[in-house]
Design brief:
Low-confidence stretches: 142-149
Number of domains: 1
Mean pLDDT: 91
Order of helices and strands: HHHHH
Strand content: under 5%
Radius of gyration: 15 Å
CATH class: Mainly Alpha
Largest sheet: none
């Protein structure tokens, strides 16, 4: 991989890590508002994002860089005051994760590309489970551009 390719890969890794930090925070919000019937689904997603976050931090360290830290707090894109809002928020989180992992797939090579593709697929599946419908090409920027507000909590 060229030097510029390595920089792009590290940039995409750090972006995915930052997004995972936000997703972990976001699922903390979801867990406090989601209905009892879907609480195990939220917990499984929370655990999956924590595991991805930790793996990405290791990958960044292995490349000789310092992993981006989580923000101390995040602003939510809309009020998450009840279970339907929590479901909508969770679906949006997963859409955003699919987009971030799509960028990592593009920037990475080898095993990391495969891992990023797997993470993209998992995010897309979780989004469908939350929303109840799918999109043709999860993770594409065109899809993300059609939403009125970013579904990801921002620092």
């Amino acid at each position: 991989m060229s030097e510029s390719g390595k920089k792009e890969q590290l940039k995409a890794l750090q972006a995915a890590l930052a997004a995972e930090h936000a997703a972990v925070y976001g699922y903390g919000v979801v867990g406090g508002r989601i209905s009892q019937e879907r609480r195990s689904q939220a917990r499984a997603a929370y655990d999956a994002h924590r595991a991805r976050r930790d793996a990405l931090a290791r990958e960044v360290r292995d490349l000789g860089s310092e992993p981006v830290a989580a923000s101390p707090a995040y602003a939510l894109p809309f009020p998450v005051s009840d279970a339907p809002a929590a479901v909508r928020f969770a679906a949006g989180l997963e859409d955003r994760m699919a987009a971030v992992y799509s960028d990592l797939v593009r920037a990475a090579e080898g095993e990391l590309r495969g891992t990023a593709a797997e993470a993209l697929r998992e995010a897309a599946v979780r989004a469908v489970r939350w929303r109840g419908e799918s999109v043709a090409f999860p993770g594409l920027a065109e899809r993300a551009a059609t939403t009125s507000a970013s579904p990801m909590p921002s620092a």
